[in-house]
Amino acid sequence: PKRSGPRIGVVGIPPIFTDFYEYIEGELGLECVYIEVARQFALPFGGDDIVEAYRRYTYPYGIFARIEDIEREVARRAINGIIHYVQGFCFRQVETMILRRRLELPILQIEGDRPGTLDERTKLHLESFAEMLS
After folding, report:
1. Which distant-in-sequence residues (6+ apart) come within 8 Å of 92 by Cβ?
2. Which pTM value belongs to this model?
3. Does some domain include residue 32?
4. Share of the chain above pLDDT 70, in %
5. Within-domain flag for 42
6. What CA–CA distance (Å, rounded) separates 28 from 36?
7. What is the pLDDT of residues 89-129, one digit of tens each?
8. Residue numbers of the domain that contains 70
């Protein structure tokens, strides 16, 4: 179904929370229009052969290589905010600082440390982010 809430992108590693997308789209009314990892794994870049497709695959590389691709998708998809998901005790937290400096839109970093549903603290952060974007 077409949603009309703020358009968001999710970057970083796949969320460990089992109800993450259900909550942000269903409960908060955000429209998730970009999921970096899913897009990257789909190899949507075309090219004449598989080598070229993998050459344009940016996710395994550093944040600066990924930001160019993220910036293009932010503009193309008219994204209002980014949720950067990181795993607890992960180096990707440094990437959030870089994303905040390079992307000119609100960014929320969400961190998970174990599988399961969203905890109340994380829900509160997501609710505040959704309210700010509305």
Report:
1. 12, 13, 84, 86
2. 0.68
3. yes
4. 78
5. yes
6. 20
7. 666 667 888 888 999 999 999 988 788 999 999 999 999 99
8. 7-133
